[in-house]
Amino acid sequence: MSEIDFRSATQADNQPMTDNIYDVAVGLSNATPQKQQSPLERVGNDASDSIVEALEEYTVPLFNNNPLHGAMVKMMGGCPVEIRRSVIENATQYGFAEKNALYGLAVFDLFDENLQPTGAVFTNPTIEGFKDIVFGHGGLYFNRSKLNELPLLVTDDIHIAFKTTYPVYAPYSDSKIKAYQLKTLLKAHPDLYVIAPVHQQDDIQRRYTDLNVKMAFIPEPPNFAMSQDELDSMIQVAVEQAKAPPKGHLAKPFKMDDGSWLHVLESGLYQIKEKQDENGETKQSKILISNALIILGEARSLKNDNWKRVIQFHDKDRTLHTLIIPYEHFMGEAQDALKLIASHGLMPPRQTYKKNVFINYIQDYPIEKRFRCVDRTGWYGNTFVTTNRTYGNQDDEQLLFNSEMKDPYSTMGTLEGWQELSRLIEPHALAVLSFACAFSGQLVTPLDIESGGFHIYGTSTDGKSTITKAACSVWGRPKDVSKSWRTTDNALENDAELRNDNYLNLDELRQAVPKAVSDIVYMLTGAQGKARGSKSGKNRDTKHFNLMYTSTGEIALEDHLRRGGIEMDAGLLLRFAHIPSDSGKGYGVFERINYGSNSSDLGNRINELSAKHYGHAGIKWLEYLTANKDDLMLQAQSMLDDFIAKHATKNSQAVRVLRRFALVAVAGELATQAGITGWQQGRSFDAVGQCFNTWLGTLGNGGNIEETKILEHFKAFFEAHGTSRFESLTVIRHPDGEVIRPRINNRVGYYDPDERIYLVSSTMFKQEMCIGINEATAKKVLKANGWLVLGEDDRVVKRMGGKLPDGSRPRMMHFKADVMHSFDDES
């Protein structure tokens, strides 16, 4: 509604008011539209305060006090009767008159089919109808601010326009909307609906038979006594009914360019043709084109490229397929599109004519729904996308996951059956950590925690693989969700992207090539894959992912890397927290036997339940998170802070890992709060806290993790090779005085039992003792921790006081055996 500019009642030229009123009346009677300016604006700017006054809202009792869409106008007294009559001659007075003032005149802008202002109307709505004065031409256009949430309605019925809260366009200067006007409106608003009372259905359908327009029909025409809510409710039902296909159809019939119709029935896609026989009677022919398929809509990327058609059909096994077919596949003879459809179980027609009808149907069927395609699962705002479903309220367009990668997620059994499994593992801390970790991936991004994982290691057949694979049942069949370490970083990169904001389990570290392990751990925790080039030479988009993971193996990471001669990096240990699998209770990972008579019975029962019931917990978890994400994340942050405060440590490096343990603990508690796990509230905090303390104990003296691991490495080397690769400097002689020298294979150095010193040359230290460790870093750590007898200028090598068996006195590294033993005691 244009805003009227009201100025002072006193005119600048002090002309009599009657003259000014007369000028306004003449202006009204001669008003003509101007480009981009409503006549109402022009009238308002030329009017005087003393005769025109606009009110913000105007209600009429006979409209059930619903507000009108225009401005209420009050014509004041003081003008000659003939002038007043010329302005409001056709307006029926409603309300009351007082001292020559007339109330009840409403003003509305008029718009053409391009929705540009082209006129104005002064009208007086009464129980008897509308009395109006029209300047220019056009229709009423109300509630346009709601176009983002409701479809545009087009109607001939002016009563609908005045009453509904839907965005609506209705002819005013013409009695009916013309086909060319509707066609123009459709270009800007392809989702509009023609709305009319049902008794006008035949006429409406006949008038717009050549237009592909949606029509909705309400059961009765509105009247002044009908409330706004009542009319809106009728319109809502009518629009929903208009969206639904006719009874027995899978989709609404589609009219082709040749006038024939395509009907999608359960039995197939049919072309319906009509023709008159020699007697003038209309006959129908029904041609089967293909098996049934429906067009769900069209999709494009978040960058508004890669446009596609979204179709759906069942194959011969009644498996439902949803295909996202790029528009480029329809170029030429559409062979790429036809091949894709055929590969998923629907055979396109072979006959050229039917094939063309089939392709035209897919390409030209009117689109009612738009999607956005994403090639990565996970969070998009408050919406979570998986490979087969999108969770959360989508204010805009629905997101579709589009990838050729195999979907690892599935369901079987029941949630109640899975909860039996969940309660079975509740007494066992490592199992609770594994299950809670399966829920934690969705919290990584919202809580801004770096990706990371846990490596559970120990002897074979102790149950570690049993509990981690069972944890995979949160999301699907354990055999499909769990992955093997026996893979490449390229293959695992795809799996990580497929599990973005989710959980990954890697089984049996020993199967992996050491170099691949190092690359994989950094890739998974670094949250992105490799940078790659495209055919054009430009960089492709790097794959990004956030996730939590578990891993199992018989050996620790540093031992496995050492086999491949790879330098051990403390950063890997922080990203890959190691937890021994032995609970110390004699049952491997289990802390007691709560099923059967031994740990094998318990493990077998866990395997049995996880193979029968899976996937349901993950669905319920995502539904829970997306129902009220913002509030849940505030609660999660508070719980995270509480766990960290409870397990605070002075070790700055351990704090990073503590945040990961805290995230897992919080995930387990929230999943319990959601009614998913069936655990006692607080169990996740207790179990994960126990595992954190176990991990913290593996750090030895509690110092810097990297230094600790380096010292442990050298301690282990001396303990393993103390007598086999170090020659004792104690002189042993035969009775005849000959010196006896034991045979030492692969000698690394010497041992002086009197001084309790190990002697190693710099060369052997580098080549034999620093496998998997940076030499310079190792020397720095050994020196700082007092493990070496230093030489001149605090050098790490020192000339021997005595002689070697060959009589030489070389400069060598002097390791203090007593310091190594005291390190053991502190640990």
Care to describe what's here?
With 827 residues, the protein is α/β, with parallel strands linked by helices. The chain folds into four domains: 137 residues, no CATH class; 120 residues, no CATH class; 283 residues, Rossmann fold, CATH 3.40.50; 122 residues, no CATH class. Helices cover 35% and strands 21% of the residues. The strands form eight sheets. Strands 1, 2, 3, 4, 5 and 6 form a six-stranded antiparallel sheet that branches. β25, α14 and β26 form a beta-alpha-beta unit. The longest helix is centred in the last third of the chain and has 22 residues. It is elongated and about 135 Å long. The protein starts with 16 loop residues before the first helix and ends with a helix. The N terminus is likely disordered.
